[in-house]
Amino acid sequence: MSDFSRRLPVYLLLDCSGSMMGEPIEAVKQGIKALLSELRGDPQALETAYLSVITFDSSARQVTPLTELLQFKEPEISAGGATALGEALNVLMDCVETEVRKSTETQKGDWRPLVFILTDGSPTDTETFREAVAKVRNMKAANIIACAAGSNANTTYLKQITESVLMMNSLSAGDMAQFFAWVSGSVKTSSKSLDAKPGGNIELPPPPQGFVIVP
Amino acid sequence: MNEIIESRTNLALGNDELKAPEAENSEIGGTMPDNTDNTGQEENNIEAPKVSLEKKIIEKAAAENGGQENAEAENYELENNELENNGLENSDPETDEAETLPESENDLVNTEDVNLNESAENVPEKVKPLSNEEVTEHTSALWKYNPISEDEPEPFPEYLTAFKQYPKSTVIGARVRGKKHKHEGTNCDDWFETANFEDITFVAVSDGAGSKKFSRVGARASCKAAVGYLVNAFEELYAENSGFREDLKLGLSDGKCMEACRVIAQKARNSVAKAYEAVETAFYMRKTDSAYEKVLGRSLKINDFSGTLLIAVIIPTGEAKENLVISCQIGDGAIAVLDTKGGYENSLKLMGVPDGGDFSGETEFLTSPKTRTEESLKSRTKIAVTSADMLFVMTDGVADDYFPNETEMRRLYLDLLINGILGENEFSELTQEQMKLFKRIPDPLVYPWVNDKSVKVPVQYTKRITEALGLTLEEIFTDRTAAYLAGLEIKYDEELSQEERLKIWLDNYVERGSFDDRTLVVVSI
User: What is the DSSP track for B257-301?
Assistant: First the structure.
């Protein structure tokens, strides 16, 4: 008998490179606040979703391990440096490997993780990125949604990671707020549709107005 | 003689909004056997849930009537910022006042550890994880109750219950709308039916696919058709070959017995085929109906009626306490036979394997063509000769809370025992030793009823008792003293029927992450 209930792990991979300095990074912080506040009002999300934040600039690290929503503390984040998206993917894979519970005979494993990547540029660690992408695609262990923010974001790289790529026009506080609202909507939807088709691809709500799905 | 049970709550009967659709009889008209008497419906022993729940209230609720339920529920809608500011501390005055949880729990909820908005700099990295109970205690105030939208065609009743005394078995069953559906104001997708032919008992349970808005229609059609077919098929079998019951007595090593089993297993498989035909019929009858199209925003597809189907047939072999059980299971959920009086080790047998396995999910449904091939159905049909005295059929809303089913179905039985649904409590006066043990048993957990937060329903859990007393499941299953003692704290009005108790329990036990519809049919054999 296990006392674990199945969790929906949610990973946020956030670009904290130099170009995010100023308004954009403040908007990201606000976004995380709003996301938490929204999810904490939803009993289904509270009972299932766990949240982790991985940030990347010239390197990447997990700033918040996978944490219960009620216990989640907003991480201290600041912007500066390059865009080590490749390393971030490696960190993600390590985290999924160590944090996400697998099914055993006596325990039901966690649901397939939901990963949101937010970046305003293109990876500067291209070699690492290429290798990491190959591994991520092979793993298929997560539903990954990538969002390219602003005109400098390169969707070609993101398309290599996942089929689900969104583009938002600007790094404005308004767009950022919409993005996080959409993330919370997606987490809510996923925590609801779990019984329908766990493990399978999930249907996310339509992206906010002004966001473009990259074909 | 033949009876199809269909029970409704007063809630459904007395309230137009929730009334079961009249259309159902016409729908099944084509698939139900002619001799099925649909008038044997059970309605007299069912009360509106509120009335019965009140009998279980341990705290006197403020006097108000059922018409205020919705307004009540809204008061419990926590504002987000309110939540932010208060962290885990329940900001709702009514809930605070209802703090009847054991002290130890309050100790655990250390607001320092879980403070939500203070991000002081010297916060230690590791926070003590919250227990599942702490989380569910918090979410219990957030679950809303919303009645089913009036625009929905064929709304389902909030509850289904059944009690049936057959010649050789007693069936109690209940089905409740899951918290998720209550929260969203959507329909329950589960259905169940039970019937008999002479001393043979039939049970069908279906869970409509959660992703399909009208899966409930398929769930109901399949259950009714399967059970209806089986009643007819066995009547015919008797007429053609009255000796088959004698053959069953010969034991599985005998060729004649095996042949009889083969025939019966074929009937079980046929019932699945008939169930699918009924789903198809239901689909064609509604295909051109714009009401469905309006809700979906597209035309209806057969997959919109996707659901699981679990069939159980129980035939007394003639030997004392021995039964032949045949099952066929498509999709998740569980069918289990349990010998409550036998030893631990061999007391439980699962009569079906849910699909999915390690893929965890990808549930197969009655509407998937590959599940209905002869080969597939054969692999899903199980036969057992058993001296077990109890059979459970349930949807995954219950089965998932007892994982792994191979061991935990015993815990399900104990939970039913402790919560006063099965069995009589044997203790009236306690010995000193029993009194000592009794004092070590934690109080029942009390959460507000989702439908009406002023109603608090105490539920006791085997898991908490074994934890508190340091017992294994085997120990408490073998010596049930602790279970009986724990049951003393759960009091019902004596008049409250077993199926009503089952319904209340299904509607109120709390497991973290468990908010699906719950259906459980218990056959005592």
Answer: HHHHHHHHHHHHHHHHHHHHHHHHHHHHHHTT-HHHHHHHTS---
